[in-house]
Amino acid sequence: MPSRSISVHGRPPSVRQPRLSPALEVAEQVPRDRRQEIERYLRLFGYKPERTILQVHVAGSFGRSAPPPRELARRQAATSRYGGHTFTVVGRTHDPSLAGRLVPPRRSRDLNPGYLGYLFAGKDEGGKAPHELLPLDFIPNGMVYPGDWKAMFNTPG
Asked: Is 42 contained in some domain?
């Protein structure tokens, strides 16, 4: 009787399980109420699903060069109008599928080359709130992004 090699799962070694996409692997590793966790976290910063615009920037693109005088004046006017910061960095993701969900910027990229676009309720085809469009690998600022997730998405930074 010829010998056969058997794998740990009882299948011949030549038959492999199909690998899940990185986003699906992350979805299996996070709690089922992950979207609600993301929403609760964003609400700590004044997030309102029907009114808040979530801007998306490439990490490390802030403060690389001094803004032109006109842009500086515009930012100062916005700061005085809104009473402080006009935006706050709240977290990060490495899932490249986010780029397909963004509303593209209205202006040219000259002012901030790292600005990719934004999420806003009612601007996507399903009318979803911005927190529902964030990938499940979204990690709050100040927490360490898991190395195995980063390796799955194979993104720099």
From this structure: yes
- Say how many domains are in the chain: 1
DSSP state of 89: -
What are the tens digits of pLDDT across the range 24-59? Answer: 999 999 999 999 999 999 999 889 998 888 888 887
CA distance 146 to 92: 11
Kindly list the distances between the CA atom of residue 46 and the CA atoms of 43, 64, 87, 117, in Å, as whole numbers in the listed order: 5, 27, 11, 20
Distance from C-alpha of 36 to C-alpha of 42, rounded to nearest angstrom? 10
Pairwise CA distance, residues 23 & 152, whole Å: 9
61 residue type, one letter: S
pTM of the complete model? 0.71
Q: How many CB atoms lie within 10 A of CB 22?
A: 22
Residue 10 C-beta-side C-alpha neighbours within 13 Å = 0
Q: Which domain holds residue 83?
A: 22-153
